[in-house]
Structure formats: C-alpha cells, structure tokens
Amino acid sequence: MLTIFSFLQGIYRFIKKMAVTVTKKMYRTAAVFVSMAAVVTVITLTSNGFGTGGRSVISAYAETVPQSLEEDEGETAPEEMNMITEAKIRVELTDSDSRRDGQLFAGSILERDVRKKQAMDELMKAQAEETKLEFVRQEEERARQEAEAARLQAEEEARKNAARTSLSEEDYNVLLKIVQAEAGICDEKGRILVANVILNRVRSSEFPNSVTAVVYQPSQFSPVSNGNINRVKVTEETKQCVDRALAGEDYSQGALYFMNRGRSRSGAVKWFDSRLTYLFEHDRHQFYR
Description:
Elements lengths: L1 H17 L5 H27 L2 H22 L3 H86 L5 H15 L4 H16 L7 H5 L6 H4 L10 H11 L10 E3 L6 H10 L2 E5 L2 E4 L1
Helix pairs in contact: 1-2, 2-3, 5-6, 6-9
C-alpha cells in the first residue's frame, strides 16, 4: 500500500513540475486530472489482486490530495512566482527600452528641427548677402552708366563747341540769305546741309576764311551770280536751321560742294562729275568733296 501511495505521489510531483509554465487555474485543473488518473489506477490495481486494500489506498489518497490542493489554493507555487517575477522583469525592461527609444526618437526629432532651422538661417543669410551684393552691383552699374552718359554728353558738348562758328552779324546775315536762296524749298535737313557746306569751306584751307568771302567768291553760287540772294526773304524755319548748323549739327560728311543737277549748266555738271568725289544726294541736291 505504501509503495502504491509513494508511486502516486511521484507521478503527482512529476506532472506538477511539468506544469510550471501554465497559469494557476490550469495548474489546479492538472492536479484534479492527476487525482482522477490516480483513482483509476488504484481501482485497476485493486481489481487485479490487492483485495480490500484498494479501499484504504483510495481513502488515503483522497484525504491527502485534496489537502494538498487546499494548501496550494492559499499560496502561489514557487515556479509560478518565478514566472511572474520574470514577466515583471521583462515588462520593466520593455518599459525601460520603450522610454529609451522614445527619448532617442524625441532627441532625433529635436536634432532634425535644430538642423533644419540652422539650414534655413544659413539660407536666409546667404540670400540676404546675395541681395546685398546684387544691390551693390546694380548701384555700381548705375554709377558706371551715369558716368558714361556724362562723358558722352561732355564729348558731344565739346564737339559742338568746336564745331560752333562764331560769326559776325554780316556773315550771319549772308549765311541766312544763301541758305534761303539755295534751299528755301528743301526740308530742314536740306537747309542744314547747305549751311554745313558753307561752314566746311570756311574751315578749309582751299577757300576763304569767312562766310561772306566764301559766298561771294566768283562763280561759286548761282543765287549770287543772278542776284537772287538779295531778293529772298529769310524765314524763321531757315533761321532755326542755320542756328542748328552753327551749334554743330552736321550731316555733310565733309562735303565742300553741292549742286542741283536739273538746274545746273552742263559744263558745271561735267566739271563736278570729272573733278569731285560724289558723296550722297538729299532733296534734289547732290553733295561732293
């Protein structure tokens, strides 16, 4: 009997050890299952020749096993305590890892934001510097253009001053009359061109050095030959054109001669064509040098 009881207790302890990974509820269920298995075993052994001893074995086991179960209900098995402790440790480690991961994630976001802000600050600083440099370049270019414009204006004024001819009242009146007589029916440019030719002759060493002497030089201008120069009435437009020529407005390309081919003598036309260099034609006047 004691041998059977010891055998059953060994089976119970073995199965109990195998149940360390199950929950407390499952542990109790396994214990009941073992008890039932033990009863079946005892009945089987009793029917095989243990006689009346089977009743005592069942009674002894029934008195022992429930007591063990009642004791187990009041306390937690060591294996289960170990499992709970390990679970708590795992949870604490998991929580610690989660906090650490959260801190690292927050740190990475903060670092990214700081770097992004630094990059934006650098970009804005570079843009501001570029804007400043562009403004400086524009100012320098504007100053250069203004200086160039002033230089060109000064050169133009100097050229006009050099070209401007200071005439006596007599020369001025003669110039007005010859321009009116020769080009009174021409446009403004045509009248300025005739005044340019007269002034070019005054400046040339090949002709006299005054307007009056140039205009009244023998056989030079037909209005002088036929006396028309003394009959013309100088218009305000002619006066303005002469003043513009005296101020330096010049289209003549250095011409010293001009003629109206349709109104000139054939001998004069032949002489122009054989002796002079043709330059251009404007408003029925051909200009030579």
